[in-house]
Design a protein that fits this description.
By secondary structure, the protein is an alpha+beta fold. It has one domain. The protein has two helices and five strands, in the order E-E-E-E-E-H-H. The chain is globular and about 35 Å long.
């Protein structure tokens, strides 16, 4: 079952609230977050920190328009929520 969460992020003196969908895959889960009309998936690494999953594909060209510091800020908030 997928669960919806809301992720409050303060970035460059602005406050945002991103919608995330938690998807379970066996023993781990991913969180799909809509950022600037694009879906970015996050998962925990072996240290428990979240990272964005970006692979070499045509999708990466689309995601590159999303600010890398914004993606990092979302990952930090996700890590602090767990």
């Amino acid at each position: 079952m997928d669960n919806v969460i809301y992720i409050p992020v303060k970035f460059e003196e602005e406050r945002f609230e991103f919608k995330g969908i938690v998807q379970r895959f066996g023993y781990f889960y991913r969180i799909s977050v809509v950022v600037q009309d694009q879906v970015i998936q996050f998962e925990q690494d072996e240290e428990g920190n979240y990272r964005a999953l970006l692979k070499e594909s045509p999708v990466v060209a689309e995601i590159s328009s999303v600010s890398k510091p914004l993606i990092e800020a979302i990952a930090r908030v996700l890590t602090s929520m767990t």
